[in-house]
Amino acid sequence: MSARNDWLILPALLFWSAGYATADAGLFLEEPFGLFGETNPTGHAAVYLSRVCAASPLQLRRCEAGEPGVVISRYHHISGYDWIAIPVIPYLFAVEQAEQVPLYVSARTVADLRDDYRRSRLLAIVPNGENGKTPEGEWIQLIGAAYDRKIYSFEIETTEEQDQLFIEKFNSSRNKSRFNLFFHNCADFSRSVINFYYPHAVHRSLFVDNGITTPKQIAKSLVTYSRRHPDLQFSSFVIPQIPGTLPRSRTIRGVMESFLMSKKYALPVAVLHPLVFGGLAAAYLTSSCCDPQRHFTKQMNGESRPEAIIAELETNHTVKPDVASAGAGR
Q1: 155: which residues sit within 8 A by CB, 6+ positions away?
Q2: C-alpha distances in angstroms, 66 versus 63, 69, 240, 320?
Q3: Quick one: pLDDT at residue 311?
Q4: What is the structure's pLDDT at 316?
Q5: pLDDT the model gives residue 210
Q6: What is residue 319's predicted lDDT score, i.e. its pLDDT?
Q7: Nearest one of 85, 168, 69 to 122, comparing CA atoms
Q8: Which of 50, 256, 33 shows the shortest CA–CA distance to 153?
Q9: What are phi and psi of 265, to 5 degrees?
Q10: pLDDT at 328
Q11: Phi, psi of 260 (to 5 degrees)
């Protein structure tokens, strides 16, 4: 294993194994990957809660000492459930402990890690296929996310009282699939969780994303909210995609951005309706590219500041995979 690969993954390992995760609620903004990520590059959104843990994938509880928390998100076609909760280390790496994470993986290694964890922890919601074989399906999104994509986390403090109310609400609510790509997607779910803690903190963009909630928009509005509330501790970090033979994840985009960047869709419109295309492009540049967040500092200097990460995402640069706090006392 090269020193370069060690440098890429060690920050994330140290973060979880050393108990560095002091953020109370974090939005996971996850890059798109695979064929679906190529056609729909908006990525995935999930929420990490540091004081909330999983009694089971469908029930929440307060964490005990030493437990690093849970990741909760909305999924499509996984046993008919709307949301599933997975402990944060398995969610990222498909193993129980940070020291078990491989520093380099192949597709076979990742498949084996996922299936081992599924068989030991998730059989109730992801049963074996015919003759005990590993089932196909989207359940692989539940575990080992860092093998498929780079993940940006934007974290804001919460209180223990808020956590308890959240646990009670979700444990008593109906957990039946509501997934809809346009109106009830993973970003809509993350938006509802963040807004449970801080009402109206994050919102969709009616123009830039045509009213569809996207992970990138939720991250941007959460950063904006944190700037309006400097009394709240806010920080960020980047979990790099684990080095290996799996394809690298792609740049996160919004709806309008995806359209303008796609030759398949944008070129016909530009040729047949140049005024329409020009108007869309000008409006997008005005509302997004000239966003004040673009003028935030982009110099990392050993930090992964929330504003800098957003600015880097807007210009499609790569953010250094450092673990660093941007909030006072973090």
Answers
A1: 23, 24, 25, 26, 27, 48, 234, 235, 236, 237
A2: 8, 9, 24, 28
A3: 58
A4: 41
A5: 66
A6: 34
A7: 85
A8: 50
A9: -105, -40
A10: 31
A11: -70, -25
The model carries a pTM of: 0.77
End-to-end CA distance of the chain: 31
**3-state secondary structure string across the chain:** CCHHHHHHHHHHHHHHHCCCCCCCEEEEEECCCHHHHHHCCCCEEEEEECCEEEEECCEEEECCCCCCCEEEEECCCCCCCCEEEEEHHHHHHCCCCHHHCCCCECHHHHHHHHHHHHHHHCCCCCCCCHHHCCCCCHHHHHCCHHHHCCEEEEEECCCHHHHHHHHHHHHHCCCCCCCECCCECHHHHHHHHHHHHCCCCCCCCCCCCCCCCCHHHHHHHHHHHHHHCCCCCEEEEEECCCCECCCCCCCCCCHHHHHHHCHHHHHHHHHHCHHHHHHHHHHHHHHHHCCHHHHCCCCCCCCCCHHHHHHHHHCCCCCCCCEECCCCCC
Residue 180 bridge partners (DSSP)? 184
pLDDT of residue 183: 73
Supply the pLDDT for residue 38: 66
Task: Please tell me the predicted confidence (pLDDT) of residue 293.
Answer: 35
Q: Which residues of the chain have pLDDT under 70?
A: 1-23, 36-39, 181, 206-210, 254-330
pLDDT at position 34: 83
Please state, in angstroms and rounded to a whole number, the distance separating the CA atoms of residues 30 and 69. 18
Q: What is the pLDDT of residue 207?
A: 65
What separation in angstroms does the CA of 212 have from each of 72, 175, 232?
20, 23, 28
Q: What is the pLDDT of residue 77?
A: 83
pLDDT score of 42: 85
**How many C-beta atoms surround the C-beta of residue 170 within 10 A?**
18
CA-CA distance, 320 to 86, in Å (whole number)? 27
Predicted confidence at residue 140, as pLDDT, reads 95
Residue 206 and residue 262: Cα distance in Å, rounded?
Answer: 20
Answer for the pair 310, 220: CB distance below 8 angstroms, yes or no. Answer: yes
Strands 59-62 and 52-56: antiparallel
